[in-house]
Amino acid sequence: MSEFTDEILSCGYTGKVSADMKSNIIRAIVLHSTMRVVPMLDQLRKGLQLFDLPKVMEMHPDLCLPLFVPGEKDDRVDAAFILENCHPVFSDKGSVKYTKEVNVMNFFQDFLQEVEDCGEAEQMTAGKVMQWMTGQRHKPILPSDQKDFNITVKFNHDCDTNHTVCFPTVSACTRTITFPTAHLKTLNELKNIMGIAMKYGHHAKAQFDSMTKGIENQ
Ligand SMILES: [Zn+2]
């Protein structure tokens, strides 16, 4: 506790700093932070008064609440949110590669829709898919963050035919997912590969190999 002594004293607490004074210390900290916030809220209130908003807030608290409190309901990710924010880097229109890429995106859309409709039974939600792709499970709260929230979708066409499978790779920090088109020619392939990739992450390939080996040996 002694490592927090400076912080505790700077909150205006003057008693003994020890565990048995916990409730007194907490009271001092809460008071200190409330006192700091009150002038800010006062300023905010003055600003809102310019637009007569406090009156509107009194009359319609429910309508105004989401303006100030990030809602539980709204930050849940659904299939539509992921798709809206996906920006595929397509090859030239009309090329063979382009056709494959459009197919993959269609399968991905179907996959997300299925996850949304009946994924909970398999512990799969759109939020989990997004977390796997981007590292975050919820929609960004601030409108400015929402505007910048892009998921780049790339396609890898360079698989050779000497191996059984590749998994989509994700880079959460740049919010990029790369689909290996050679292994995603049907919806079932995509569902299977996404399931394994999300469950086992970097170990997906090893897991897949041991699973297929098991089947061969039977
Ligand atoms: Zn491959």
Automatic annotation (TrEMBL):
<protein>
    <recommendedName>
        <fullName>HECT domain-containing protein</fullName>
    </recommendedName>
</protein>
<dbReference type="InterPro" id="IPR035983">
    <property type="entry name" value="Hect_E3_ubiquitin_ligase"/>
</dbReference>
<dbReference type="GO" id="GO:0004842">
    <property type="term" value="F:ubiquitin-protein transferase activity"/>
</dbReference>
